[in-house]
Structures are given as structure tokens and as C-alpha cells.
Amino acid sequence: MTPELASSISIFVLALLVGFEVISKIPTTLHTPMMSGANSIHGVVLVGALLVGGLADSPVGYVLTFLAAAFASMNVVGGYVVTDRMLGMFRRRPEPPDRTAARAPDAPEDHR
Amino acid sequence: MSAVATTTWLVYLAAAVCFVLGLHLMRSPGTARRGNLLSAGGMAAAVLATVLLLVDDGDAPAVGWHGGWWAAVALVGGIVVGGGYGWYSARRVKMTAMPQLVSLFNAVGGGAATAVALADFLRFASEGTGSGPALAFGVPVALDVLIGSVTFSGSLVAAGKLQGIVRGAPIVFRGARVALVAAAVVATGCAVVTVASGAVWALWVLLVAALVFGVLMVLPIGGADMPVVISLLNAFTGLAVAMAGFVVDNQVMIVAGALVGASGSILTKLMADAMNRSIVSILVGGFGTGDAGPGGAGPGGPGGDGTVRSIDADDVAIQLAYASSVVLVPGYGLAAAQAQHELAALAAVLADHGVRVGYAIHPVAGRMPGHMNVLLAEANVPYEQMLELDAANTELDTCDVALVVGANDVTNPAARRPGTAISGMPILDVDHARSVVVIKRSMGHGYAGIENELYTDEKTGMFFTDAKQGLAALVGAVEQYVS
Description:
The complex is a heterodimer.
Chain A: H1 3-23, H2 31-41, H3 45-53, H4 59-87, H5 98-101
Chain B: H1 3-25, H2 29-55, H3 68-92, H4 98-126, H5 135-163, H6 176-197, H7 200-218, H8 226-247, H9 251-274, H10 279-284, E1 309-310, H11 313-321, E2 325-330, H12 332-336, H13 340-352, E3 356-360, H14 371-378, E4 386-387, H15 389-398, E5 401-405, E6 435-440, E7 460-464, H16 467-482
Parallel strand pairs in B: 1-7, 2-3, 2-5, 3-4, 5-6, 6-7
Helix pairs in contact in B: 1-2, 1-9, 4-5, 4-8, 5-6, 5-7, 5-8, 6-7, 8-9, 11-16, 13-16
């Protein structure tokens, strides 16, 4: 096993653990935007499409490059746009009654 | 490392940090949007850094640009076409159609990962080194193509089912089970041959067998199980992308893939628990047809003698107007009737009148995890009013009226007794409310195909009507009583 592979496997396992830790704290209310947001994160495969595109030198390679680039960009662009659109709809009560008034300054971005 | 390679590496690290922090900010609806933007920023930086790496030939011959004009055309063309379509569909999609779109994005993510591994492997094979691939290259290629293709075809079928292009009920034909096993065996065999010998044909056969496997895997799964399937395919896509990261030796892809794999796995587990079904039994399929047996819901549950009490809009309005707290229980039927806005309007009238209002949302109320919350958010329901299962049950224990719209199996008290099709499934304790109103078109069954004992409970009133018209009528009637 090469040192590169060993470090890649460590990174993979640690990232899985970080993922479990961070994601288990997300409330069920946000599970759809979270899944769609995670979806856009795996759009990072666009980086892979660019890397193989840089080495493509046959017609089959060009076709696969096109497919990889098209699929990945659709994934990444669509994913972030639709997640943003969904998150924009989640808002607090319009006029916070007495008990939430104290919390209002924390969230200036909610005054849309 | 050259200066450019070092810079790229640092940008990748920063991007990975942005992804993790972005997900971290999703812990609250107030910061989630910022988190998504941060994640998008990291993504843009990672892509730009990669472009920089390609343009600068530097001293790293393994990366650099060797592709020539056609490869550049393919890349730019792909980005424009794919990005354009992604943008368009993301702007246009209706919130009720969100599960299909997420499923479609799962599919293309898996497809892209497959294409990356295929392209890299074909290039390796064309160099004709004579020997097979190193294990560190061959294994991730085979796994990437396997998982990526299953995700691609499986997610497309799932999206088709959700969209109604493919029949939503489980599709089972003679020999399907045999074909599924055969596809799995062929795919596994070819994966081994690919890794051992580096034969290109084996990888192509693996691709086809895995695509067939994905289709056959999702076809027999019913509509009610879609939240689990989507979550599972989401986890698969993440793993496929991580494998693609191993193939092209790119660590930001490995990190991102692992994060998504973790999120998909957690959701799959949560959804399966919410239905009290094992992931294996869902994949084996057959649920959602009503063929899960008669259900053994004995004649008449506790407190019911099998008769239902029918009430009209005025009766319901009086109950609501004089209640001090009301819990609304929306189910997928509400979304199917496009009645979220009417429900939100009713809640607003009640809240203005000083009634405490909450929405009790079961984890599988929609077609994907958290779907109902998005549908309600679209109808301007403030997120503080959306109650998760435990909070909702606390509220239901003390509330005056529970109003059920379009939810069925998740409110059935029969789940608490052993021996029914839904036994053990966590439910909303709607029957604990002081009185219950159910808006429903008819006495039809839910997905589990069994009688809902809630409907025959003596404190339940059935308001037989279309959800949209019924709620609109209630808004009018309640306004009369409170003004």
C-alpha cells in the first residue's frame, strides 16, 4: 500500500465520522434541504470530470468527459440553487410575540 | 509540489472545510441559508482551482492539460448544457415535486462518478502496460462503476415513479427476483475480473449488469417506501463520488463523498425506523400494495364500536374557535390536494384569535425526509410551529382539538398493539387529544391497507370532504365565530 492510499483511506474514514457527527444534529425540519444540500456537495465530482477531461485523447474519452461534465454540473448548479430556494422559504413568525422579541436581533437575515 | 499544485491543495482543503461548516450551519433554519452559500463558495473555489491546475502545465505531468481541443469542447459543452438544465429545473420545480428532482440529482451524481472512473480506466487500458491495474486503482474503479451505475438507473426509476411516469405501485414480474440475483452475480464476477486482469470488456459488462440491477432493485418498491429509497440512493451516490476520488486521487472528492454517504445513511436509518421496517425488508419490496396481509386489525379498536360520526364544517369551526390549543396533523394527502395554503390560512386565523397552533409532522409525512416541512414553509408556516414526533406527542396529550388532514397510517392507534401490519411503527398520538377531527374524502385505507381505529373512536368526528374545499370552508366558518 502506498502512503498516498493510506492517507486517502484515513481521510475517507475520518470524513465519514465528521459527517455522522455534524449531520445527526440537523433537525428533521431541515432534512429535505439538508439532503438536497448534501446532493450539491457530491457535485464536486465535477472536479473529477475536469481532471479526466484534461487527459482525454480518444472519441470515447471525449464522450465520457462530456457526460461527466454535464451530469456533474447539473448536479452542482441545480443542487445549490434549489437548496437556496427552499431555505429562503423557512421563516420565523412575522411579528414575534413578547417571548421571541428578545431573540430577534440574533437573526437579522429573517426580516425578508 | 509546484506552487500551483500547493495552492490547489490548499483550496481543496478550504473547500472541504466549507462543506463541513456549511452542513454545521444547517442546524438551525436561521443560519441554514448562509451554510448553503458557504458550501457553494467552497465548491466554486475547488472547481476554479482545478481549472487553474489544468491550465498550468507545471512540473506535474500526471495532471496538466493533455486533452486537446475536442476535450475542451466536451468539457465546456457539458458544463453549459448540464449547468443550464440544472439551473432551469431548480428554478422551475414545484415543491411537491422536490423528491423527483433530488432523485434526479442523485442519478446524475452517480452517473458522473461512473463516467469519471470509466474514462480514467479506458485511458489506463489504452496505454497497454501489459499488466493488470494496481489494486489501489482497480478496486475503486470497479466499486465506483458498480455503485455509480446502480445509483444512476435506480434513481432514474425512483424519479420516474415519483413523477408518475413509471407506475408507483410495486412492479413485480415473474423471474424478477432471479434476474436481480443474476445481475448481481454477473456484476460481482466482472468486478473481480476487472480488478484482476484489467480487461476492458469486463468493466463494460459490469456497467450494464449494474444498470440492470439498479432498475430491478427499485421497480418492486412501493410509493410509501420512497423516503427510504431516496435516502439510500443518496448515500450510494456519496460513496460512488468518494470512490471516484480514489480513482483520480483527489481528496476533496473523497471528503465530500464521505459526508454525503454519512448523511444518506443517517436519513435511511431514520426513515426506516419511522416506519418500523428494516432496510432489507423494504428492498425486498412488496409494501404499498395493500398486500401486506389483512393486517389483523381486530374488529373495533379500543373505544370504538365500528361506527363513525360524521360532522360538518360548522361543527368543526365551533370546536376550533373555542379551543385553547389546536394541533394540525398534515399528511401527504394534504400535499396531493395542494391544500397547504388553506391549512396555513386556517392556522393563521386561529392564531390571530389567540389559539395555540402547532403542526404535528411525522417523519414519513411526505415523499422524502422533511418534505412536509418544506411544503408548509412554502405556505408561510413559521418553522417554530412545526413539531417533530416527540414534541408533537407532548402537545397532542394536552391539546383540545387535533385536526387530521390527509394523514392515515401514522395516526392509527393499532400500531401500539402487536399483530397488525403497522405494529411497532412510531405514530402521532392523535387519539390522546381531547377531541379529534379528521378531514377525509372517504373511508379509504392508507398504504398499509388496514382500518384506522382512530376513525371509529367515539371522540373522533369525520368531516368527509375534499381537503382544499373543506379547509377553505373552515376558514370562512371560523372567521364568523371569532369576529
